[in-house]
Amino acid sequence: MSSRLQQLTANIESALGDKLGRLVSHVGELTIECSVANMLDVCLILRDHPSLKFEQLIDLCGVDYAEYGEGSWSGLRFATVYHFLSISLNQRVRLRVFAADDDFPVLPTLVDMWPVANWFERESFDLYGIMYEGHPDLRRLLTDYGFVGHPFRKDFPMIGNVEMRYDPEQQRVIYQPVTIDPRNNVPRVIRDEGFHHG
Fold this sequence. Notes:
By secondary structure, the protein is an alpha/beta fold.
């Protein structure tokens, strides 16, 4: 671990204290984990503490851990991962927060702290179904208004649930149940064990 990363680790541990759930260093990057209950306090400290100054939220994304580790995952299912940048101190950190309820995942919104979170949270809601409590306009962003389900969830069917087409008789776009036959996406292994080079 570089001295710069060691210093950032010490600064994070000192600033967050008992609000820090876990701090993981991997390939030169730090990932902070905290509980939902401490999330807003942790984010405020990350943004405002003089030794951290993570003034910019670069990105956030939802994650579904349902099949993580080839099904060996036993933790909570849904998380949001946040990527922060300190321009003034030239440092980065990642924050991962798991939603406490797998059936109805909810995390607090960060729109009030970082307005850029608005569309990122909408995307995460649309694709994973993670709700962001306090979001000013939480609605779908990438899928259609009538779309059912959340397509990045591991249990969402690869062919979807409905298909859309133009019906010339009704002169409008209609939705109907999927009529595509499911495909086997497992690659076939071809072995020619009786083949001999002559």
